[in-house]
Design a protein that fits this description.
Helices cover about 35% and strands about 15% of the residues. With about 400 residues, the protein is an alpha/beta fold. The chain folds into 2 domains: about 130 residues, Aspartate Aminotransferase, domain 1; about 250 residues, Type I PLP-dependent aspartate aminotransferase-like (Major domain) (Aspartate Aminotransferase, domain 2), CATH 3.40.640. Strands 2-10-9-8-7-3-6 form a 7-stranded mixed sheet, with helices on both faces. A 4-stranded antiparallel sheet has the order 13-14-17-16. Strand 4 and strand 5 form a beta hairpin. Helix 2 runs antiparallel to helix 9. Bound molecules: D-malate (MLT). The site of D-malate has 6 residues, from loops.
């Protein structure tokens, strides 16, 4: 009989957001008339902007005619998209990249999860806590987690981000070889200044660590002095991979498109100490396991960068940031401790009276019919917190806040 990957049974039965969906569904079954407002998973609610919709239609029409039909595309993405990404997302910030350092994919989640394929299963991992669960779960799947002890994986170094340290993690104390950073942060909605990010890049350079930098929420940055890309920091191209996504920027959660930057100057070692280009390995991995993002989707992503597309997308981001402000100010009026939500679409709130995350989640669901995400689901330092997403419809967000403000917590 074939053997399974023995790391999988070590994981909790379901992925965090599947577990939440299951609990909400169970509640709906038992209370069919409940008018549930979902501020849990960070899924967008605004439709695709007109420029994107037009690009999709046009691309479908091209696919309908033999003369313009396209079959398999380049696994790394079409040059029209790779080039426009560089021109818009990097050159204005003084970052030089070449097209073959950009890999178009179907979203940041898959690329972040898959990137571990080209790294040693014996590498040590450090990550901020709380954290996007994909970083943890995919390392456990690969065998880099060790054993689960009291909500922590024994082989992973957790870098607590709490109110005490203003959600700014300390540098690792172990000799971590792979470090995950996500800024603006999911789930806390907090940011890292240029100066602080520089300490991470400097640390990685001196300790030869690799930073996997998740910049999926970059478009939500409203404050000065918050880097949009890790490559704004000198030397980052030697130590960091950056993941970007059109999901939250342009409402592509259903369409699926993102990209990963793997600079050619980035190297890691073999067991015998020989240096190897990660760009070459990632290219090898993608050409073998991935057949490219759909042509029509890449044309849609290209349209995000047209002058009109940029304006339309910016308006949607402003709308979600307005939601974040409605949530933030409403919770603050209740006297709750609230973080994030200024340069990010997530609000991280401390539960009152030390109520546990799951208990607060359950009460919010059953007493207000509002869905959040329990902080502890993102890691042990998330206990006593709950995350609210600002991606809802604005009227529904106002309604949710009204319910919470009238609630006898
Ligand atoms: C979240 O809610 O944390 C995100 O939507 C998850 C994701 O982007 O996969």
């Amino acid at each position: 009989m074939a053997r399974i990957n023995d790391n999988y049974p070590k994981l909790p039965v379901s992925y965090l957001f599947s577990e939440i969906a299951r609990r909400v569904e169970a509640y709906k079954q038992s209370t069919p008339n409940a008018d549930i407002i979902r501020l849990g998973i960070g899924d967008v609610t605004r439709p695709l902007v007109p420029s994107v919709v037009k690009a999709l239609h046009d691309a479908v029409d091209e696919q309908a005619v033999a003369a313009t039909f396209r079959g398999y595309g380049p696994e790394q993405g079409y040059d029209f998209l790779r080039n426009i990404v560089i021109e818009n997302d990097f050159i204005p910030r003084g970052i030089k990249l070449e097209a073959d350092e950009i890999f178009i994919g179907d979203g940041a989640k898959s690329d972040i999860g898959n990137f571990g394929d080209i790294l040693s299963v014996n590498s040590t991992v450090a990550l901020t806590d709380p954290v996007y669960p994909v970083y943890v779960d995919t390392n456990v799947m690969a065998g880099r987690g060790g054993d689960s002890v009291d909500g922590r994986w024994s082989s992973i170094e957790y870098l607590p981000c709490t109110a005490k340290n203003n959600f700014v993690p300390e540098l690792p104390t172990s000799s971590a070889e792979i470090i995950y950073l996500c800024y603006p942060n999911n789930p806390t909605g907090t940011t890292l200044t240029r100066e602080r990010l520089k300490t991470w890049v400097d640390y990685a350079r001196s300790s030869e660590a690799l930073i996997l930098f998740d910049a999926a929420y970059e478009a939500f940055i409203t404050e000065d002095d918050i880097p949009h890309s890790i490559y704004e920091i000198e030397g980052a191209k030697e130590v960091a991979v950056e993941f970007r996504s059109f999901s939250k920027t342009a409402g592509f959660t259903g369409l699926r498109c993102g990209y990963t930057v793997v600079p050619k100057s980035l190297q890691c070692k073999t067991l015998s100490g020989e240096k190897v280009s990660l760009n070459r390995l990632w290219n090898r991995r993608q050409t073998t396991k991935f057949n490219g993002t759909a042509y029509v989707v890449q044309r849609a992503a290209e349209a995000v960068y047209s002058p009109q597309g940029r304006k339309e997308v910016r308006d949607n981001i402003a709308y979600y940031l307005q939601n974040a402000e409605i949530i933030r100010s409403g919770l603050q009026r209740l006297g709750l401790n609230v973080y994030g939500g200024i340069s990010a679409p997530y609000i991280w709130l401390q539960t009152p009276d030390g109520i546990s995350s799951w208990n607060f989640f359950d009460r919010l669901l059953t007493e207000c019919n509002v869905v959040g995400t329990p902080g502890v689901g993102f890691g042990p330092s998330g206990e006593g917190f709950l995350r609210l997403s600002a991606f809802g419809d604005q009227e529904r967000v106002r309604e949710a806040m009204q319910r919470i403000e009238n609630w006898k917590i």
